[in-house]
């Protein structure tokens, strides 16, 4: 069995009747969203934060997985949360945001809201047009982790990105974009003004594509891509808590 890196484990908290499903990004792991998950638990929410298959171990293991594996894990975590709560919100960072939108499109009636943090729903690098061929001849390329303005912050990313898994991300993004119109739940989007991994057009694409009426975008002026570990992390926590309380029309434990 492949060993999980310390600090990269899945995490959950029992909490009250309102739950939050927290999803990390591609080549990242739960360490990047752990502070947010713990802050939500401290506010009384039930929390599920899965470790997506292939993440938090070795980059070669990620190359053995596809979006079907990641979506299956996200769905399982949602069902575990649903079994012990009466209302739920899904929170996703980067590719976790794409997974959150996937859940909102396929399980909308079971979700009270969606929180997206620098959602990754479109790969804009033109060089990746050759990805269908490259994935068979080139195992991996240098990673793009730790895009964080805050000194000494570390999301424990992979040093390399397996191209087979990246090709699956691109296929998954296409599927998510095709079904954005099915997303009707209230949606809160955090977008970093300076993001060196995902261009801000991803957030605009989501905002223009979903059918939700209750929509808000918050610009993060000082944080980079991994905003949950960056200088405005507390603002993300505070606004997310307020959003969850509003869309579920309740307070944890009430």
Describe it for me?
The strands form two sheets. This protein has a seven-stranded mixed sheet with strand order 1-3-2-4-5-8-9, sandwiched between helices. It has a two-stranded antiparallel sheet with strand order 6-7. The protein is globular, with a radius of gyration of 17 Å. β8 (187-192), α7 and β9 form a beta-alpha-beta unit. The protein has eight helices and nine strands. The mean pLDDT is 93. It has helices at 34-42, 59-62, 67-82, 95-106, 131-137, 163-178, 201-209, 233-248; strands at 11-13, 18-23, 46-49, 87-93, 113-117, 140-142, 160-162, 187-192, 215-220. It is of the alpha/beta class and 254 residues long.
The main sheet comes to: 7 strands, mixed
Radius of gyration, in Å, reads: 17 Å
**Low-confidence spans: pLDDT under 50, at least 5 residues?**
none
Strand-residue proportion: 15-25%
What percentage of residues falls in helices of 4 or more residues? Answer: 25-40%
Tally of helical segments: 8
Query: Could you give the order of the helices and strands?
Result: EEHEHHEHEHEEHEHEH
Give the overall shape, derived from the CA principal axes.
globular
- Number of DSSP strand runs: 9
* Helix and strand composition category: alpha/beta
Mean pLDDT: 93
Strands in their spatial order, largest beta sheet: 1-3-2-4-5-8-9
- CA(first)-CA(last) distance: 42 Å
Describe the structure using short key phrases.
254 residues, seven-stranded mixed sheet, two-stranded antiparallel sheet, 8 helices, 17% strand
């Amino acid at each position: 069995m492949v060993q999980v890196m310390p600090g990269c484990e899945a995490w959950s908290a029992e909490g009250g009747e309102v739950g939050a499903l927290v999803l990390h990004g591609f080549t990242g792991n739960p360490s990047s969203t752990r502070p947010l998950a713990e802050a939500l638990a401290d506010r009384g929410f039930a929390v599920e934060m899965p470790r997506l298959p292939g993440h938090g171990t070795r980059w070669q293991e990620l190359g053995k997985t596809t979006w079907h594996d990641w979506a299956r894990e996200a769905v399982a975590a949602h069902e575990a949360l649903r079994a012990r709560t009466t209302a739920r919100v899904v929170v996703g960072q980067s590719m976790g945001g794409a997974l959150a939108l996937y859940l909102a499109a396929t399980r909308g009636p079971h979700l009270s809201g969606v929180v997206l943090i620098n959602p990754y729903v479109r790969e804009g690098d033109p060089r990746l047009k050759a990805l269908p061929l490259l994935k068979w001849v080139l195992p991996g390329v240098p990673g793009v982790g730790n895009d964080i303005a805050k000194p000494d912050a570390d999301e424990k990313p992979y040093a390399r990105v397996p191209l087979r898994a990246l090709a699956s991300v691109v296929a998954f993004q296409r599927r998510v974009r095709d079904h954005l119109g099915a997303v009707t739940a209230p949606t809160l989007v955090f977008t970093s003004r300076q993001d060196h991994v995902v261009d801000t057009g991803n957030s605009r694409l989501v905002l223009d594509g979903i059918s939700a009426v209750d929509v808000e975008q918050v610009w993060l002026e000082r944080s980079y891509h991994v905003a949950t570990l960056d200088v405005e992390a507390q603002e993300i926590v505070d606004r997310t808590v307020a959003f969850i309380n509003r869309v579920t029309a309740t307070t944890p434990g009430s």
